[in-house]
User: Which sequence fits this backbone?
């Protein structure tokens, strides 16, 4: 399934502004490594800018001039990039978007510092809006960004903590991804309503819609981590098993597999030298794990359609959001 057209509506403006913001301070000590990592020259590996595009699309649907907020959209993207740098260090992932991760290229210590600089760029962008919007709204924007950052860090902490546990429930997993992935995704949906000064009911609807999208996006990511094409995802299909990651497909498989097959599944997962990913996916496919997940996702999508029908948004934007929810579980990267 092709990505929704609206995602490309804003991408050029976002990328141009993204580069300009990075170019404001060309310190010889950190500009080049950050620039090489963030400004991807290969267009096929360019980030989709989903979070910032959603943010601008909803502002547009609320009849706000989205051009005024392109810089703030980049603040969302810089916050996202900060989280990826630190996640890659902690997860020991060596590839990101088909290239070496920052820690693999420059070492753990330097990449922690580089990640912190990326976070400060996001903070600076957010603070710059204080003088452009009403004081009470500016305060709410700053508070919201800080809360989202804390929630993301909590989610990553839980993700690492769960690696040392033999098993966790799907309920715990869903809470973890609502923080790690969902918090920032959700921000893209409800930050426009804060800037628009929407009523409380619309704020709740946007936030709930964002929470659902965050869950769907991570579940989709989990499926790609196992069944996706590594040339599209830029990630090994075995890394989630190798790192003892608790993902939706893996946890669901452990719930559905028989005791005998669970034992085989665990042995295959821990024996990376002699295991083919196909051995694991064949076992999961015999229990229709992927089909069950798709069915679970469709329930979330039905809920999202109901919420979209209720929010105060132009019809074109409602249509675009519905297309986005359909796309998220069919994407290939």
Assistant:
């Amino acid at each position: 399934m092709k990505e929704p057209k609206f995602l490309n509506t804003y991408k050029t403006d976002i990328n141009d502004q993204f580069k300009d913001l990075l170019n404001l301070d060309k310190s010889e000590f950190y500009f080049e490594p950050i620039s090489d990592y963030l400004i991807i020259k290969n267009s096929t590996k360019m980030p989709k800018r989903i979070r910032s595009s959603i943010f601008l699309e909803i502002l547009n649907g609320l009849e706000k001039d989205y051009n005024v907020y392109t810089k703030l959209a980049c603040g969302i993207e810089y916050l996202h990039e900060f989280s990826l740098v630190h996640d890659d260090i902690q997860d020991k992932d060596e590839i990101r978007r088909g290239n070496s991760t920052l820690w693999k290229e420059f070492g753990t210590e330097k990449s922690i510092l580089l990640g912190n600089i990326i976070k400060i760029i996001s903070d600076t962008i957010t603070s710059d809006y204080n003088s452009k919007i009403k004081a009470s709204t500016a305060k709410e924007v700053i508070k919201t960004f800080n809360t989202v950052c804390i929630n993301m860090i909590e989610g990553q902490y839980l993700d690492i903590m769960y690696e040392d546990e033999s098993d966790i429930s799907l309920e715990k997993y869903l809470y973890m991804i609502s923080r790690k992935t969902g918090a920032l995704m959700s921000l893209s949906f409800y930050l426009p309503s804060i800037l628009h000064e929407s009523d409380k009911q619309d704020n709740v609807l946007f936030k709930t819609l964002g929470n659902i999208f965050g869950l769907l996006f991570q579940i989709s990511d989990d499926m790609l981590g196992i069944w996706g094409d590594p040339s599209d995802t830029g990630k090994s299909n075995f890394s989630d098993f190798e790192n003892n990651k608790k993902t939706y497909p893996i946890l669901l498989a452990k719930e559905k597999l028989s005791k005998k097959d669970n034992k085989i599944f665990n042995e295959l997962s821990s024996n990376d030298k002699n295991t083919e990913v196909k051995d694991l996916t064949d076992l999961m496919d015999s229990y229709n794990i992927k089909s069950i997940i798709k069915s679970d996702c469709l329930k979330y999508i039905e809920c999202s359609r109901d919420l979209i029908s209720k929010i105060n948004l132009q019809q074109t934007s409602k249509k675009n959001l519905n297309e986005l929810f359909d796309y998220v579980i069919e994407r290939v990267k």
In short: The two ends are 11 Å apart (CA to CA). The mean pLDDT is 90. The first helix runs from residue 6 to 22. The CA atoms of residues 258 and 287 lie 10 Å apart.
